Sequence to fold (230 residues):
Amino acid sequence: MIFYIEDQLIFPPVDLANEDGLLCFGGDLKPERLILAYKNGIFPWADDPVLWFSPDPRMIIDLENWKPSKSLKRTFKKGLLTLKIDSDFNTVMEKCADTRESTWISDDFIESYCELHEQGIAHSFEVYQGKQLVGGLYGLSLGNAFLGESMFHTVTDASKIAFMNLIQFLKHHKFTLLDCQISNPHLVRLGGIDVSREDYIKQLNEALEGETKKGNWGDDLLKSYIDSLN
Fold:
């Protein structure tokens, strides 16, 4: 059974999701609903109506054991790409939408997640070539969890460099969970692993016990962790 939600700020238990991970539909994309969803291991796809998912298994990154590939480190060391955080959140979302043939990232999605960015909860990691934005990703930070949403690149390896920057930042700040939602070949190549929904919810609940690092993260692009990329 797929549940329908209206204006009430509530979600069904995640173990009632169907085999594709679809739990319910309806509601809206207001920041308070999005935050509640992510705290319960749920995320939205589409917005007419909004579809809410909690898949089993769930893809995450093993932060403790993740290491960048030698080729990726060599690319970064060439010095042709510049890393930034939270410098242009809106454009990152727009490019994540524009670089796909089909996308769930509608104008309503962008508006809602930009509100979360203004609240210091949603963040973007960017890669620039000169003054041009050539890669990036965005997601939400709650407690010691980062809940990844989407990434893009217009230059080879740019999204991988943004991903590496994200992971180094999370490790530097003692995050314990990086959620990648659903498995795909690109995420597997980046080090994604599948865990059961039950295990994911356990890790999520433990991560949510930490204090959310709110605000613009751009000022925290510290030399101490940039050096760790070299």
